[in-house]
UniProtKB/TrEMBL annotation:
GO terms for molecular function: nucleotidyltransferase activity. Residues 5-167 form the MobA-like NTP transferase domain. Keywords: Nucleotidyltransferase, Transferase. This is CTP:molybdopterin cytidylyltransferase MocA. It comes from Flexilinea flocculi. PANTHER family: MOLYBDENUM COFACTOR CYTIDYLYLTRANSFERASE.
Length: 199
């Protein structure tokens, strides 16, 4: 099964009160965005599409040398759904499913991504999403048959949540708390640094 990936990296980082955009701060010597993109590439998704918006040129400079497709979302202020749609427009026809990742979740394990990919191959007509201790996390896999719903029925910051609520999903229990954790604030970032140092 050919699975592509869309990394949503267009947000304005408004809650991260620092001089740098949150995707540009370092974890283990690499920027958050580069860490997320490299991990996604290692998971054999083809293609890997990164949707940028706020600080687009600076974020692009961090990852331009990697084998990815970079898409600029000029409507990023209208919410995450606009980035998802930008990414979907760049997905080639041969791709049967897409993995939607958040750029500010750099520590999701390779094992988790591999596990979710295997479940998508096993259940090719179902949305696949991780659960950690009963809570739904990211990334989420959407087979192509759901692309029209994602284009036509989501808006603002809803992402694919409404589609999951209506259509249902195959939820996979994972032992990876990072499917629930992203970097929104300085405190989140400090917690990520602590977690990285403890690995």
């Amino acid at each position: 099964m050919k699975i592509g990936a869309i990394i949503l990296a267009a947000g304005g980082s408004t809650r991260f009160h620092a001089k740098q955009h949150k995707l540009l701060v370092k974890i283990d010597g690499k920027s958050v965005i580069r860490t997320t993109v490299e991990k996604t590439l290692q998971s054999d998704f083809q293609p890997v599409i990164v949707v940028v918006g706020a600080k687009g040129e600076t974020i692009t400079a961090e990852i331009h040398d990697l084998p990815i497709i970079i898409v600029q979302n000029t409507d990023w202020l209208q919410g995450q759904s606009t980035s998802l749609k930008c990414g979907l427009r760049a997905i080639p026809p041969a791709v049967e499913s897409v993995c939607i990742l958040l750029a500010d979740q750099p520590l999701i394990s390779q094992d988790t991504l591999h596990c979710l990919s295997l479940y998508q191959e096993r259940f090719p007509d179902e949305i696949i999403a991780p659960l950690y201790h009963g809570k739904r996390g990211n990334p989420v896999f959407f087979p192509r048959k759901f692309f029209p719903d994602l284009f036509d029925r989501i808006s603002g910051d809803s992402g694919g949540r409404e589609i999951i609520r209506e259509k249902g999903a195959h939820f996979v229990d994972v032992m990876d708390s990072f499917v629930l954790r992203d970097i929104d604030t300085i405190e989140d970032y400090q917690n990520f640094l602590t977690a990285e140092n403890n690995e």
